[in-house]
Amino acid sequence: MLRTGEPKFSDEEAVSLCKREGCYDRANHAMTRNQLGKRVTGDKESAFTLTTLGLEQAARLIQSMGRAG
């Protein structure tokens, strides 16, 4: 989203990020994705979009990362 301005991501992008960060769990990826609940809408085939709740939580996360740096 920070690169494109679009609050969308594909499942492939999510897997790639998880692998890069060392937190990818192949056996539980779908369950972990489902735990996002109302923060995202969409599906694996068409992509996911952050909802208002997801955008708000993402903004708080980014703000906290800025304070920690």
Care to describe what's here?
By secondary structure, this protein is an alpha+beta fold. It has one domain (8-68). It has three helices and three strands. A three-stranded antiparallel sheet has the order 1-3-2. A hairpin with a 3-residue loop joins strand 2 and strand 3 (47-50). The radius of gyration is 13 Å and the shape is globular. The model has no long low-confidence stretch (mean pLDDT 90).
Shape: globular
Average pLDDT, rounded to a whole number, is: 90
Helix segment tally: 3
Number of E strands: 3
Helix content: 40-55%
Q: Which terms would index this structure?
A:
69 residues, three-stranded antiparallel β-sheet, 14% strand
Q: Quick summary of this structure?
A:
The chain has 69 residues and is α+β, with helices and mostly antiparallel strands. It is 49% helix and 14% strand. It has helices spanning 11-21, 29-34, 52-68, and strands at residues 8-9, 40-43, 47-50.
